[in-house]
Prior knowledge:
The chain is mainly α. It has one domain (about 5-85, about 95-170). The chain contains nine helices and no strands. Helix 3 crosses helix 4 (about 60-80) and helix 8 packs across helix 9.
Amino acid sequence: MGSRPDQRGFEQRLQEHRRLIAKVASVYAAGAEDRRDLEQEICVQLWRAWPGYDESRARFSTWMYRIALNVAISQLRRGGAAQAGQLEPLQPHHLDTIGAEAAPERDERLVALYAFIGQLEPLNRALILLYLEDRSHAEIAEVLGISATNVATKLGRIKQTLRDRMVAAEA
C-alpha cells in the first residue's frame, strides 16, 4: 500500500503560488475559457506529480513552473491552445494576472511587450516569462532543462529583437 499524497500541503502550496499558474496560462492560452481550461489542466498535472515532488531537489516554485510550462507547451503543440498570432490581445484586466501595474503611460508598452511575447516560440516564451519573474539564469536553466549559457544567449537574442521592434514601432 503506497502512501497517500498530502492533499492539505499541496493545496496550501498551490494557493501560495496560484499567480504562477495564471501567468503561464495568460501567456499560452487564448481567451478566458482557454486560460481557465489550461489552469485547470496544470493543476491536475501538478496534483498527479505531487507524490514525486522532492523538496531537497528543487524549490516548489521551480518544480511547479517546470510542470506548468510543460503542460502549456504540450497543449500548444497539440493545438489545444492558440497558436502564435491568434492570442487574445492583452487587456487592462490581464495586467493584474501577470503582475503589472496598470498605469496609462505603461499600458501601450506592456501591450506591445506581451504581444511580442505571444509571437515567440513556446520555449522562448517560457524563457522570457521566467526572466520577467526575476529568475536567475541558473533557475531558468533548471526549469527549462537547458544550460545557463544557453539561457543567457537566448535572452540576449530575444532582448535585441524586442529592442529592434520597439524602436521600429516608435519610429
